[in-house]
Amino acid sequence: MKLKYVLPIFLIVILFSACSNKNTNDNAVVSPAKNVSNPREEIMIETPDPLNSAGLSTEKIEYGFGVARDEKPNELSLNNQKLFDNYSAFCLDLKSKDKVLYLTFDCGYENGYTSPILDTLKEKNVNATFFVTLDYLKSEEGGKMAERMIKDGHILGNHSSKHPSFPEISRSDMTNEIETLENYMRTNYGYSSKYFRFPAGEYSISALDLVSKIGYKSVFWSIAYLDYDTNNQPSREKAMNTLLSRLHPGAVILLHSVSSTNADILGEFIDAAREKGYTFKSLDDFPVK
Predict the structure, then answer these.
(1) DSSP state for residue 220 in the 8-state scheme
(2) Number of C-beta neighbours around residue 123 at 10 A
(3) 163: annotated active-site residue
(4) Which of 66, 104, 137, 256 has the fewest other C-beta atoms within 10 Å?
């Protein structure tokens, strides 16, 4: 080939390569989601297999955990964890040898009880995880509480942007729900989360697969009780008896921050659990493979 033809072709190749590698905006396109060094930099998360060509089940599964008794997890929780092991998800720690507990809260809106909950956690030196939505963070009081959670050393978890039922939306919409909240945390708090909780606990195999492949750990639970109805709060005695009777080693505990009863009993509950030999651990200590 003559030189006069080689040179133009070489220049075209160089220009094409430069254009292909040029980032057209300041967002980083990443998968999994956390491969970014600057926590205030927005990210764009690629959706793996957006059309679900693998044919994974999209059937809605309404999460159930069973009632633990005699300091043993319910068989339903045990079976759940067997499934979750395949998707970097967990509801129960079956690997730790000690009597450990993981305390988590769902935060849908703010009604004044999160502050005393945080006061108690600080007093008792307990680390918790708070799963928040975009509406919660954008509210004035919710935003203030989130700042305090981070300052106090707690974990913020991603509870989606608009709290939809994940089995009812596409894989691309699932990614968008998580990405939107992730970027709000990044730009407003310089914070990046690695934990996700499905809204209402509703999931599918496809959804579990999607969340895992974009780099998040799905967090369920093995202990909960009816604490979220603010107009029908359980008594102190009933709440304490219910929670303590359901304790078991490795439990992930779900509470709601809107509960006046939870705010009232939290310190007493932590003390009682410790008297039974339990230790409260952070989700960051959870032995997920």
Answers:
(1) -
(2) 11
(3) no
(4) 66
Residues 273 and 251 sit within 8 Å (Cβ to Cβ) = no
CA-CA distance, 18 to 68, in Å (whole number)?
Answer: 59
**Active-site residue, selected from the candidate residues 106, 209, 227, 264:** 106
Give yes or no for a contact between 183 and 34, defined as CB atoms under 8 angstroms apart. Answer: no
Round to whole Å and give the CA distance between 9 and 64.
Answer: 63
DSSP conformation letters of 182-218: HHHHHHHHS----EE--GGGEE-HHHHHHHHHTT-EE
Question: What is d(CA 174, CA 159) in angstroms, rounded to the nearest whole number?
Answer: 11
pTM of the model: 0.88
pLDDT tens for residues 231-271? 999 999 999 999 999 999 999 999 999 999 999 999 999 99
Residue of 93, 209, 256, 264 marked active site: 256
Q: Is 154 considered catalytic here?
A: no
Closest CA to 250 of 34, 10, 78: 78
| Per-residue DSSP letter, 183 | H
Distance CA 148, CA 265 (A): 21
Name all domains of the chain by residue range, CATH numbers in brackets.
61-285 (3.20.20.370)
Residues in the chain: 289
- State residue 152 phi and psi, 5-degree precision: -80, 0
Q: What does the pLDDT average to over 200-215?
A: 97
pLDDT digits (tens, 9 = 90+) for 107-129: 999 999 999 999 999 999 999 99
How far is CA 271 from each of CA 143, 161, 248, rounded to the nearest angstrom? 29, 35, 15
Which residues partner with 44 through β-bridges? 29
